[in-house]
Amino acid sequence: MRALMPATASRTRPLRQPPAPAVPKGAAGEQARERLLLAALRLFADQGFARTSTREIAQAAGANVAAIRYYFGDKEGLYRAAYTEPMHRTRNDLSVYEQPGLDMHAAFVLFIGSFLEPMKLGDELLDQSMRLRYREMLEPSALWQEEVEQGIRPAHQALVRLLCRHLGLQHEDDEVHRLAFAIVALPMHLYVCRDLVERFRPALLDGEDAVQAATERLADYALGMVDAEARRRAALKKRRTQE
Q1: pTM for this predicted structure
Q2: Under 8 Å CB-to-CB from 137, ≥6 apart: which residues?
């Protein structure tokens, strides 16, 4: 019996676990992460968060599920990266708009340029990013509220402060907010109407030079709107002093 005990004991030892799948490092790791990000963006945009599995994303990217955990933490982390990274890679530091001597046209070029920079992503990537945003607006998660509070609201307020300084206002009012929303609508309409632009006048958004030209021209239009608001306020002040 004693002769059998070692063999019996060896059978009770825990089996050695197979090593975890290797995760690429360095440049190969960056490429693997990018493949996962793009595959997730496409699937999340097409199917939504709940109907997309990490296994499906990994298979589409030619990676293993362990890579998702390594690069993004979990499915929620991958969704956040797919939602934010492609569209936010060139977002401006808002402190640039606080510089006292900043020229208004230069400020508008920066502001509008940050909106239009994603236009240079390419049609497929841009389409997927916009579809994912529309999904998030229709079926909002905490991520949309986070973007509103940490991204959209601060940018809007930075623009309002810039307009107040240029117009010589001590306090913001409804009209300066109305003007800020109108300025933001200038670049945003190119996203909403992009299909029509490509049908009616595709050269307007064809390539980086075209996007830069659009940025410069919309900055001109924004400056014209500000000048019109300044004249409106001056005329209103004059009427009040004459009454």
Answers
A1: 0.77
A2: 144
